[in-house]
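Late entry, heme C complex.
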Amino acid sequence: MLSVFSCKHNPQEDITPDLTNNYTNDSVSFQTEILPLLTGNCAMTGCHDAATAAEGVVLDNYNNVINTGDVTAFNTSNSDLYVVLLETDPKKRMPPPPAPPLTANQIALIAKWINQGARNTNIMRCDTNTFTFGAVQTIVNNLCIGCHSNSNPQGGINLSNYTNIKQETQSGKLLGSINHLLGISPMPKGGNKLEPCKITIIQKWADTGYLNN
Ligand code: HEC
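Prediction complete; structure with ligand written out below:
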């Protein structure tokens, strides 16, 4: 299923993290934009988490993404991590069905990151003044939908549309899970706790009446 990954194996490279402030407004942030996408859609149990490591691919941190995803800076067509996203053959496409493919915007963001040099950037970009449903859905789509979509509603929780997101937020479960409240499974499962700013956006959206805006 993941044969594309297994055709070529770079020797493990010693990658020096590039967590400098050397970026522009246009720079893609690996830690806050790319890694959450990968942990939410690829690094789950049974797939590309460290324990499963399907086809030797582990997408849970920068070095593993570069090495096991065969990422070549400035070269998307030589980066297996990217190539498999575009596969039209469902047997080769990642994430595999029944999971939905990444959206065009998400794929474009990964391409942009590779074309900017696939650096280990860590840029905080989160505006708590924008707490529309659109902002909430972007967070959920990037961090949760891989396990909570129509086709893959883990824990019986489906977060693929307004009605469901509103329902899970009104019940207190969604905010409880991302705030790691006692008695509720901490989310995103297996990932880092959300940045406070993202939690604030969802909290403000709830406090102002769950508008569908
Ligand atoms: C890697 C897969 C995965 C990701 C990513 C993920 N979840 Fe979950 N989620 C699960 C599983 C599995 C369960 C069932 C409970 C468990 O096994 O911990 C669950 C349960 C839940 C529950 C019910 C918790 C309870 O105790 O009743 C909520 C709410 C939830 N997830 C919200 C989210 C939100 C919000 C995000 C994104 C910020 C997210 N999840 C990301 C896998 C995931």
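Residues 40, 44, 143-144, 146-148, 154-155, 157, 168, 173-174, 177-178, 184-185, 187-190 surround heme C (CB under 6 Å). Will revisit in the morning.
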